[in-house]
Model the fold of this input.
Amino acid sequence: MIEIAHLSKRFAASGPPAVDDLSLSIGEGEICVLIGPSGCGKTTTMRMINRMIEPDSGVIKIAGRDVTNIDAVELRRSVGYVIQQVGLFPHMTIGENVATVPQLLGWDSARIASRVDALLEQVDMDPKRYRDRYPRELSGGQKQRVGVARALAADPPVMLMDEPFGALDPITRAALQDEFLRLLYELRKTIVFVTHDIDEALKMGTRIAILRSGRLVQFDRPQAILAHPSDAFVEAFVGDDRALKRLGLLNVGRFAVAGAPPAGAPAIDASQDLRDALSALLAANVDVGAVVDGQGVNRGVITLHAIRAALA
Amino acid sequence: MLEEAWQFLITHPSQFATALGVHVALSAAALAIAAGIAIPVGIVAAHRPRAAFAAINVANIGRTLPSLAVLALVMPLLGTGFLPSLFALSLLALPPILINTLVGIRGIDAEVVDAARGMGMTARGILAKIEWPLALPVIFAGLRTAAIQVISGAVLAAFIGGGGLGDFITAGIAMMAVPQLLVGAIPVTLLALGADYAFGALQRRITPRGLRVA
Done:
């Protein structure tokens, strides 16, 4: 869906390049997370996709079309854009904000009105209650919901998201991550997602591109990055607890084995991850836990041995 | 004293009406000319950091010049009368409008403009739909300051033969005739207060609802 080839950008003629010969291929429906320390070029790379920044060299193609051959304004209207500070227009109502791109595309007002209501519902904001409010009346999490609704308005196949949850408190952030993961997955959007938070990257990304000094260091699935970091930089970047993080990506249900749980075994929901299971086993000081489904029906057992084997 | 001033006024109705008319015309025209120059220049300069920096500095220097000095400087160049007075007063009204236009536009949150651009608004669209409505209350505050300055500054037009209510004041001072002085001074004060009130009310009206303090 998005092909990036030999992309380079230098802001100061004498300084180091912000993005240095970067190549990436992002498939349709993928959530590609760009991550790395400050100044690694992740935001610059993202902003070159909708030509907010023009590259010095290299090619970016969306659905086979070279973006430099598309009028920049037209291109941006066809790509969703969400930023950390949201950037809602303070003088416009929530409804008017969400209607921005449809307005630019010249939709008729009835179509815009019904689309706005549908989008607000999709991001769990009651249209009747919020449509005519102003941004300053919303909380940070609500603003970002509106920001995402606004970006989805014209149903763009590609979305660019620059640390969309970065300014939120941890609880709101986790809730929005879960919700948008589900929503974006349902909508089959191709997403380029910038963050500096490795946990967020592991959670949101179908693939993660780790950047350093404008270069791509590793580009792989979250599991693979945790299991086989390509070098010491990636290893340090993902953290010393990468084994635990890997467990956090694995579902208990998948590793449950048949058997009757011994007396006193802690009950662990099949939808939890192995990290939770390990924590429960350690807390109860036992080797075997009972796996139960949502209804509390027994689904076998999870053992310390199985957890260790999962990482092998 | 006020009684005598009133007597003077009703015995010189046409003289008063002319002076008042000239004063209002001079002020309004100067304000319109200054706005016509300062707002477009401010908008253009606001998008160019260097130009904005230069414009703010020049305007700040302009603002420190005493009104009388501006009028005095104009006289040897343009002579006396209505037009030189208008020129000087327009010059006087430029800085507050220019500064407020620049500050109004540059004060808009960068991420708001970034979001607008990122969603595919053209530069012109951003100006019309985002920057202009958000900067307008600040620009209006500049017009309000300029209006008061021009109305009081227009009193000095009398010194270079520009007419207006300043004629009564200068004549009153010259002849030690306080009632006549008041016939000039009181209406000028009322004009300035009225302009302040009118622009203030207008400023509140044009402030977008989303920006108003609840």
Chain B touches chain A at residues 109, 111-122, 125, 129-130, 133-134, 208-211 (CB under 8 Å). The domain at 2-209 of chain B is CATH 1.10.3720.10 (MetI-like fold). The CA atoms of residues 27 and 145 of chain B lie 13 Å apart.
